[in-house]
Amino acid sequence: GESVGLHLPTLSVQEGDNSIINCAYSNSASDYFIWYKQESGKGPQFIIDIRSNMDKRQGQRVTVLLNKTVKHLSLQIAATQPGDSAVYFCAENREAGTALIFGKGTTLSVSS
Amino acid sequence: DSGVTQTPKHLITATGQRVTLRCSPRSGDLSVYWYQQSLDQGLQFLIQYYNGEERAKGNILERFSAQQFPDLHSELNLSSLELGDSALYFCASSVDPSPGNTIYFGEGSWLTVV
Predict the structure, then answer these.
(1) At CA B41, angle to CA A25 and CA A35, rounded to 5?
(2) Where is pLDDT greater, at A5 or B88?
(3) With an 8 Å Cβ cutoff, is A25 touching chain B?
(4) Which of A50, A68, A71, B49 is the most buried (most CB within 10 A)?
């Protein structure tokens, strides 16, 4: 079935490096995408979102890139910090009235 | 703090029993969502309500049911519990179901079935 997935289950980086977390989606009709961060024992926390009529959106230390041609989404974290260690999920909201569909997540580990 | 409140935070119960999980959405949010997260699994969408009405259904078992009350709080009822129902259950809320409205998650209710 159609789903949102992530390329890698884990990513390990050094503090200060830039991190790139990737996500592939299969439904070309999806028009809204979100990245969430989930720390251990906590609920998912909204990071950044992007509509399908954009290909890039920047936040504080984070950038989301959307490539609709290959149905690929990525989250870039600049100057990764130990506090960024968490599981990152991409999710899609295909249309009004439907709920977010999540991928399995990428665990980001940041070492000092 | 997302503003979404879930109770209880932890719950241990035996197989065959029934439990109710409660959720208060963020002030002003009319849409409520329930998700299940099992160990090493992603978030599985269960059900969505908007202003008291069921809006969408996901992978929710027939043993599970939910409702949203006039004051907008929601309850997820899990019955005839099995060991495999042990999971973290999240409630989330948004202003309305339209894409582009941020969906905020609560801290979850840990359910352990023994």
Answers:
(1) 45
(2) B88
(3) no
(4) B49
Instruction: Tell me which residue of B67, B66, B60 sits closest to B87, measured CA to CA.
Output: B60
Which is nearest to B101 in space by CA: A56, A93, A74, A23?
Answer: A93
Pick from B42, B97, B99: CB nearest A105: B42
H or E element at residue A21: strand A19-25
Q: How many CB atoms lie within 10 A of CB B92?
A: 29
The pLDDT tens digits for A65-110 are 999 999 999 999 999 999 999 999 999 987 655 778 888 789 999 9
List the structure tokens of B98.
């339209």
* pLDDT tens column, B60-76: 999 999 999 999 999 99
Which residues in chain B are contacts of A36 at CB distance < 8 A? Answer: 105
